[in-house]
């Protein structure tokens, strides 16, 4: 039996200069320049939860602030499958991967509003602003295709 996809939202958070927020996974602290160690904020959607509310909630949970406004919603759900060695283990062992609704957001706060230290078990241990075009090279292999798509489809917001 094939496992289902987990519903998920993702945030491409742009600052005033058109750069995006990327964060380093806390479980990969030595991945300073390595592909896969850096990613965009994303997370699961609760049953019945509004997707726009979910992306702002995920921002607050993962980076400590929801000071952002949604400027675009990707028109499609984008899916990825976990590698075979992670299926049945990652994502609680319940899912084959994720189906994701991505949003472009404009950051309305200051860098001081980004607080990775508010969660007692943070997903990320570092963050930085990066060019959208850098995003695909940062992605773990099984998410790279989605990041290539986001870099193309949200390019207008990077200008």
Automatic annotation (TrEMBL):
PROSITE patterns: NUDIX, NUDIX_BOX. SUPFAM superfamilies: Nudix. It holds the Pfam family NUDIX. Residues 4-152 form the Nudix hydrolase domain. A motif (Nudix box) lies at residues 43-64. It is an enzyme of class 3 (hydrolase). Its cofactor is a divalent metal cation; Mn(2+); Mg(2+). InterPro entries: Nudix_hydrolase, NUDIX_hydrolase-like_dom_sf, NUDIX_hydrolase_CS, NUDIX_hydrolase_dom, RppH. Coiled coil: none annotated. Keywords: Hydrolase. One of its GO terms (molecular function) is hydrolase activity. Its EC number is 3.6.1.-. Belongs to the Nudix hydrolase family. RppH subfamily. NCBIfam families: PRK00714.1-3 (NF001936), PRK00714.1-5 (NF001938). Accelerates the degradation of transcripts by removing pyrophosphate from the 5'-end of triphosphorylated RNA, leading to a more labile monophosphorylated state that can stimulate subsequent ribonuclease cleavage. This is RNA pyrophosphohydrolase. It comes from Roseococcus pinisoli. The gene is rppH.
């Amino acid at each position: 039996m094939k496992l289902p996809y987990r519903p998920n939202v993702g945030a491409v958070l742009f600052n005033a200069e058109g750069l995006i927020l990327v964060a380093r996974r806390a479980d990969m602290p030595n991945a300073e320049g390595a592909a896969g160690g850096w990613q965009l904020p994303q997370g699961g959607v609760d049953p019945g939860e509004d997707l726009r509310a979910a992306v702002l909630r995920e921002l607050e949970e993962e980076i400590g602030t929801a000071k952002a406004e949604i400027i675009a919603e990707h028109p499609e759900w984008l899916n990825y499958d976990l590698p075979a060695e992670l299926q049945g283990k990652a994502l609680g062992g319940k899912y084959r991967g994720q189906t994701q609704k991505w949003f472009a957001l404009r950051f309305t706060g200051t860098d001081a509003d980004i607080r990775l230290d508010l969660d007692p078990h943070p997903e990320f241990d570092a963050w930085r602003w990066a060019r959208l075009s850098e995003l695909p090279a940062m992605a773990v292999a099984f998410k790279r295709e989605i990041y290539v798509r986001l870099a193309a489809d949200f390019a207008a917001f990077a200008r």
